[in-house]
Design a protein that fits this description.
The chain is α+β, with helices and mostly antiparallel strands. It contains 4 helices and 6 strands; from the N terminus they run E-E-H-E-H-E-E-H-E-H.
């Protein structure tokens, strides 16, 4: 997504326009490209969203660096829009991290009761990509802070 503006996502707890910043992070010998949401809605969400959903998609086409190729980036934009649709008002996408042949999306939610809906909703609509979702209680937003948030 470097060099491209992030899509305007409607998943916002407040009426402010989502604001994203990009960072490159070196971690365990790999370069991670991170897009972090930093607008006021994220600050407001910290009070009520304490469940972190790590949504992981392996890349289908990668460069030697572990980053997606240009064609994969286009495909992932569609995946991200579908992710936003499935999340709806149940949570907030706050970061995406690309590297090591995968993209991880960090989604905070009030609870994890809808994780099966998330898995199935994505799996059916993002083929041929596969998806894995891990759930972690994270009231301190340590997952978000790990990537510069």
């Amino acid at each position: 997504m470097l060099g491209r503006k992030r899509p305007n996502v409607a998943n916002d707890l407040m009426s402010s326009e989502p604001r994203w910043v990009s960072e490159r992070i070196e971690q365990a010998g790999q370069t991670l490209v991170c897009w972090i949401r930093t607008d006021s809605a994220v600050d407001a969400a910290r009070a009520s969203l304490h469940t972190l959903l790590w949504v992981t998609l392996p890349f289908l086409d990668t460069a030697r660096s572990g980053q997606p190729t240009a064609s994969e980036v286009t495909s992932l934009a569609d995946v991200e829009l579908q992710l936003q649709r499935v999340i709806g008002d149940r949570g907030m996408l706050v970061a995406s991290v690309s590297g090591s042949d995968v993209r991880e999306y960090l989604v905070y939610a009030q609870d994890s009761t809808w994780v099966d809906d998330l898995r199935h909703g994505l799996a059916e609509s993002i083929a041929p990509h596969s998806v894995d979702v891990m759930v972690q209680e994270d009231p301190d937003w340590a997952g978000y802070r790990k990537y510069g948030g």
